[in-house]
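TASK: fixed-backbone design
INPUT:
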């Protein structure tokens, strides 16, 4: 299974996000995952959080799963592989957690490389946030 970790650390959060970047880079290296850390937003007309859609889409063609992980978070147990969260039926294309009031939390987010994922992310980008 080809997995890529993707994150964004804009200059304003870099002073504290650097700990998360070091943490994620070491985790990815340990498990043989690809790791891409970006330092600039994908679209300056939108809030930085919207960049995750474009950055995930950028890598879907090359991997089975893309794992978005917010730059200011840490992977606490390096002994747990990402594959352990991906034992899902083939019709599941995204794995998210919920936050308060059952809202989706996209701080840690798996996206399968599939036509559905690409279409959904493109539709969200086109129809919201702009």
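OUTPUT:
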């Amino acid at each position: 299974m080809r997995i890529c970790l993707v994150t964004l650390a804009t200059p304003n959060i870099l002073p504290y996000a650097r700990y998360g970047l070091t943490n994620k880079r070491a985790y990815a290296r340990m498990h043989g995952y690809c790791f891409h850390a970006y330092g600039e937003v994908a679209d300056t007309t939108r809030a930085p959080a919207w960049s995750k859609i474009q950055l995930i889409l950028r890598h879907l063609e090359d991997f089975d799963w893309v794992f978005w992980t917010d730059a200011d978070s840490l992977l606490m147990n390096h002994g747990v592989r990402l594959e352990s969260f991906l034992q899902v039926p083939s019709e599941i294309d995204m794995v998210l957690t919920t936050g308060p009031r059952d809202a989706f939390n996209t701080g840690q987010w798996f996206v399968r490389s599939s036509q559905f994922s690409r279409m959904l992310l493109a539709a969200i980008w086109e129809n919201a946030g702009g």
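COMMENT: The chain has a mean pLDDT of 95.
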